[in-house]
Fold these 3 entries.
Entry 1:
Amino acid sequence: MTHLQVGNNRTRSYHFSTSKMAAASTYYYAQKATAMSMKNALVPEVPVGILALCVPRLCCSLDWLFATWAKIHNFPSQASDGLHRTAIMSKSKAKQTCHVVGCLDRHTSLHRLPAREDVRAKWIHFIYNGNIPPSVSKNLVVCANHFASDCFSNLGQYKAGLAMRLFIKDGSVPTVRGKDTDEGTATKSALAAVVHHVACQTDPPATRRVGTQLSMQTLQRNFKSTGSLESLTRVDVGVSSSAVASTRPCKRARLEQEEDEENPLEGSSSMDITDPLDPASEDPVNVLTESTNATLKSCGPVHKMASYIVHKSCLLELFEVCPVCQRVADVQTRSRGTFLSVEQQCPHCLYSRKWNSQPIIGDTPVGNLQLSAALYTTGSSFFKLKKIFQVMQLKMFPYDTFRRHTRMYIEPAVIHKWNTVQAGMLQHLSQQHDVTVGGDLLLMSDSPGHSAKFGSYSMMDLSSNTIVDVQLLQSNEVGGRKHMEKEGLKRSLTVLEERGVTLQSVVTDCHPEIEKFLEEANITHYYDVWHMEKGLSKKLEKIAQKKECEKLSKWLSSIKNHIYWTAASSPFGPERVAKWTTILNHVQNIHTHEEPLFPHCLHPQNSPTCKSKWLTAGTPAFCRLEKVLTSERVLKDVQKLSPHYQTSSLEAFHDVILRFAPKNVFFPFPGMLCRLYLAALHFNENAGRRERPQSTSPEPDYVEELLDLIFEKVFPDPSPYLDELLKIPIPMSLPAHFEGVDTREVT
């Protein structure tokens, strides 16, 4: 029997066995922090540890009582030493306070004197405000309120809730005295009381402390023993109590919170964290807690870290057991899109830690922004990827988050990237002479039964097959789709002229307005052969379908080849016309001509093998062929066929545009323009590409460079990049009845 003196006039007797005392001591030290707030409750039948906690002035006596009792009854020394050490640490922490003279608004993050003598002298001079006493203690501490914001190495992580205390850089000296500090520093004591984390968008509910009556069932905690499967004993301590056996508890239920709705600033949650001392004075439990934050300080950009798909059940297995006491811990998870936060709290030894699946920049998880940037810069569809994620049970952020990322960070980065690349290309062209460019228009955002809303006019340097300018036109700003091509050409030529590019010639399709405009501008104009060949082939195929003109179908392929040969082999317009008209003699098996510029055919004179294919003058097939090939419009176009460069590469670029901006998907003007720039960057990077040797490391592509720009420059300070985007003139939107396309994907 052990007697416990409570107060000056009451003595109660409690029957303790070794197992009962061990259980009581476990309850006491596991619940000490909680029960201290319930000192007004006086219940006759409560555990001895809880009863002592109701009278705070007896806590030290109770620590001594347990230590003495453990020695008498041969209680394991490790447990008693641990309990005594816990009490000593709690006392030492309670005594820590800022020693700066006149400090009233004290921060919970304290920093000890540095080891360097020169810096240490400055600290002491600041602490005593110049009035240094003869003897100075070695245990002086200074709170974080006296340091400027640039003295901390983890201020951003601390504000975001990724660190429980502030760390100062080597050589930092306190300089801030009093409360006259700016908001950029870490001198606000409220930051220590409430730290906002990324997992919740609401503030914690208001709480108040009240006296209550507790029983053993209220404070009972589940625990797990890793060394034995035996049942443990639970003790209710009172005037007459008995031991009640309990079976091993089940695993604790995990608390899950999923937050699909995000605020515009990637909202944060709040959690009370108070841990004032530097790592030099931490206990082993706190050292383990801080190890999770150390992963965020790894080398290299955060968006270049390797990523993996991890199943939630496999991940949470790492948090089920407390790493200190090896018993079952409480686990709570919060998610935001691809981001997962896990909080582990041990109810037995009070160990806690927080783990995040991604680094966090400001209030934004890196993985969410990285996925948005990867989607946008590669021309992928958000909704298609969302379907894939749903099938694979992968978490993804809502579409509003994707739109916010694109407007704030991704589109400004794309505009800046294209302007930089375009300036370099035009600077290179301005140093050359006799530059030949090609231009063509692509109608976009159209659907059956509706007119095109946008037109993309592309200008290409035909010597290198690279896009040097892209103009986006909206039909209502140029007076209709028929004027888009001329207006796009004028804008592109203005850009080249402003950058000092001297043009030798321009190659386009057969367009009367373009021809007239370039003639007035005194610019040499050539027609693309493919566009002319396509128009003639359609007319001849239609004629060959008639019964009396069936022979003509045997000559269609030869006539197509003759068009390309005429353009490539003739440096002057009259020679092209002479070669072109000789095709009428050739189809009659006549290979000498009256044209002085081309007197005879260049092919060898072989005896005909198939006489049935030759045409005869005066027949319907020959007459119709002659009418088409020698019309005034055709002869004029043949004279302007390009002898060197063609615009076939521009047609290939149009296919790339449709990959980034499909015709049946609506995009607003800035989104469409950015997708055109991405298509140009993609095409230029792959133009003339040859297979690299395996030993050669690939050069950084435009996507990697864009991600570097977004994370390293645009995201920290988007203002100058947004200003660059806002300088782009945006025409008024069309009425709703012109937008007869799929409007689901609006970015």
Entry 2:
Amino acid sequence: MHPTRVMFQIVRNPPPTLLRPTNWSQQINDFISECLEKTVENRPMMVEMIEHPFLNELFDNDEEIQADIRELLVFCRDAPAIYKEPEIFVDRGYIKRFDGKPERMYPEDLAAIENPTEELISDSLRNRMELGGSYSFIGDILLSLNSNDLQLDFDEEFHIKYKFKSRSQNSPHIFAVADIAYQDMLHHKEPQHIVFSGESFSGKSTNVRLLINHLCYLGSGNRGATTRVENSIDAIQMLVNAGTPINNESTRCVLQYFLTFGQTGKLSGAVFNMYMLEKLRVSTTDMNQHNFHIFYYFYDFMNSKNLLREYHLNSDRGYRCLRIPAESQPTKLKYHRDDPIGNVENYKRFESILQDLDFNHKQLETLRKLDGFVRKLALSKTQAEELAKFLKSGNHLAQDVRTSGYRKRQTSIKQFFTVNDANTFTYCHDIIGLMNEINITHDPPDWRLFIDSNKASLKAVLLYKDKSKPPVPLAYNTDKVETYNNLKVLLNYIQYEQFQWRICADMKVVATVMGLPPSGWPRNMCFICLWDTRYAEGQYNKKDWPLRDEYTVGNANIINSPLVSRDKILIPPLHVKLGLVTNFVKSFIKRNDAAKTCLRNMFPKLSYAKIEAGIFNGPDIRQMLKSEDFTKSLDANAAIAWSALKVVITNVLGNQRHENFRGYVNNLMEAFSKANVHMSLKVHLMHAHLDWLERQLSTESDEQGERFHQIAVPMEARYKGKKLDAMIADLCWWLKIAKENLDDDDLDCELEC
């Protein structure tokens, strides 16, 4: 073992013991353990060790000890000679042997260098490279220097050397990183993350393959899994690798590998994510930048099989995307575009891997036809718009595959939007023209105006009454504060007075547009009636509050003139549902430790403050509805109230409204009263104004608007820093196309893709 590694083992590893401690007495084992204690403060002094039982239990008669020693000497004299390694010792950074010259030691961990300088580190790395050590540690970081001669294949003996070992037991290697991650995963039961970073041609892809190869060895045992994972990496690299002036196997994307293991540590599968760095490589005319390998593999394979005509391709290798020079350029690198014979074999292997991954003949044929058409168009900007038509007309895609064109798609829609000079506010100035352009019938009584804000913006969106038509964004304001002035300007610009849509928004926006304070605790805060929040005889005992006959500034907490008519306001079912759950949880959470513990276990990522405040979102509530443990943790009155609340959420505030919804709500109010649930505004709306909810359809909900926020997030990220009118026009175009081709559940994920 290298002396440097010995020094690291002394520090990092536990003290050595006898080879077989059970063959020796407890006294001698303890004596050795005390002597080899590494912490000075815990190591006994000599006067203490003299009193150790191992020394005190020696024979009192010296003659017996002498006889035993003589017998041992005779035995050793007759034993065969044992080979002894030449003695070496370390002195000031050199290994000194009695039979050779001193040899300079170069640290395997650069973090161990005292007073490091650039020259000292460079000298250490250079000399390690000359001695065959391309890897070095810097603390927990592994540094790999590409010598262009990295070994790719290792026998099982080398893998065993790095299996369940401490880092200091072997020289630095990528296998050591894999072994540490694997051990930590099994021990801590937590995902491990390994990041590779470096310049082009630094060996990132090679080291990733080596790391995964060792992880597959460590997790072997699941028949076929390791082979499929390693073959999948080969197929991915055929798709994303390309030639550059300095690297003939340059990976032109960011790759994310997720390797999954079972409870026993066996490899179970893998997930691969790819983030393309340069889509322009497909269509660029730079002859020094080669295209992705798969293009050369496919073309040369089809040429060798005389199948080019079947895929509408010419046989002259003259396509722009192949970028074949008229005269071959002298180069030290062997590029795939210059190796047609090798490309044929590579494509055979590519399809063989896909077949092993359960790709059927129809799917492989679709890939072939798609690849052939990419060459036919050469992906110029003017021809790219014909891609969708060609694929559909030629039946090259399965029936469930949808296509659409993207080039300047928002141009015709952008003309209907105006953006201010500061690029903070955009709105539709011609709603009739916009609806005609996107071919959607606009009858104002059938549409609802959703107004809400998120972390990025304040939006106004038209929602159709039954979700059969796509949402249509009308305004977008980066000043996301829902103030009275912001809402007044927004409604004015989108010509609300002309169309008079019904308003669907949360209670804060409703209060603001009706002239009420949006926050605080005023005495009368209901926009429908003069509800007294301090009613002494019990909130659940009174329903018939006097209606608001007028909205005069200064009267009954009205601070601004209403912006819309009260009859145009819709009760927001989603926010009512959230409010009911919030008030229910707050009513018992502080006195019911079992329920509090259950919620903390159910939502470990939620802060304790949010749980105690009853702040949950839609998915959280759905999880609570399914949890039997949560129901069992409640006391009798709370359990009855929770059961009634579940019925109301499902049959009153969901997508379908039961014919007996009034009875369900009355049962809930009675249960809430017995469970001492606080009467908030949203509980009051269900208690006193259920007829208001009855006026609106079950499909008229703010939930559709909240989903629009999620759909718009990728578009907002894509257009960050660009003109808002282009973004909102593009969003209008996409929502129209997506609604024609996708189900509602696919809208948000498809846009992000």
Entry 3:
Amino acid sequence: MEVVKEETDVKLECEMSDKMFLSDNETVLDAVSSAEVKHFRCLECDKTFPFKKSLKRHAVLHSGVKNFKCDECGKQFAQKGGLTQHLLIHSGAKNFKCDACGKLFARKSTLTKHLLLHSGVKNFKCDECGKLFAQKLGLTRHLLIHSGVKNFKCDECGKRFTLKENLIKHLLIHSEVKNFKCDECGKRFAQKVDLTHHILIHSGMKNFKCDECGKLFAQKGSLTKHLLIHSGVKNFKCDECGKRFTLKETLTKHLLIHSGVKNFKCDECGKRFTLKETLTKHLLIHSGVKNFKCDECGKLFEQKVDLTRHILIHSRVKKFKCDECGKLFAHKSILTKHLLIHSGVKKFKCDECGKLFGRNSGLTRHLLIHSGVKNFKCDECGKRFARNSDLTRHLSIHSDVKNIMCDKCDIRIRIHFDIRVRIRTYVKIYIRVRIRIGILINICIRIRIRI
């Protein structure tokens, strides 16, 4: 049957018998023998119904008239049945349980829709990207993403959203209310979905693999973000320094550096950081825990990133060259620090002895000498040192291992520090020889003049 709209009533035409009907009493019941046969079609949404009465009730939804109002929240409904079902939400009663996951629902219709998720059946397809959905509502919401329309704006940060529910969830971030806690590490989250994703990290399961580099991820979203790195596309640019980033969130964190704000302080040494994650990594230094070991020399590191950088030293690959002196470096950061030597700028001064340094790290290490504190002890001879680097160099004396070969004379040494010692020794010898030769020449000249 097909619906024909008129001013006063809904007119129905039976496709089976070419008859017209205006009231329920005239409905041909034998043409609609079962509830599964639906011959009454709505011209607005193409939805079909087995009885004309059902179609009439449905037509009210398209009229836009909502005479039934909820006293609790003010929400309005076109049908009384809709209001009745809605009131179950405020009652807090959830009598319908999903046997698959145990989730409870206030309405049976909501449970029925939810069961489609567990069935795996996805009959609704997006024509834009081909994504499938179990419910038509899911597809309808998804289509808004392709429309590009974002009518819901966050007053706190200006971020816009396609769906109102996404904005409501986002506002929890600014409220700083985090009711969902991880039992493993104690980390708290504003949304339950974020906690669910986080728990995957502790499970150790990493089912998402990058085809480019083979790296594994616990979450699909993390893999998606990682793939942008291989694409080489960096659409987010910092207006302060011109540096470009692949992800917007990385740019947001980077901008904090230019702000100069450092709200995270280390209780051990007083050092301040812009980002909380940087402070977390820094705390590993004070913990003394070094879980990352170099297979080449056995050196231990607190962080994996430090081990990765260290491995480049053994590879002898030095891609970064100093234009001033031609010296090569394995890391760009080391080259940047090295360039300060050529600049001659020394902004950091020691208040104890007045010595100047080009880098703050150099001054920090130097101050340990004046402090008199020597926390690093050699287990072999008991000698103590103010800096860990000095202890490391000292330990090479007790070791017979000589891993480094001099490029000039092919002599194997223990550490790079030995090269500097040898060079200084040779220079001193050379100067002494030159002085003695000069003395002999002067003596010869005087003798010859006398003769």
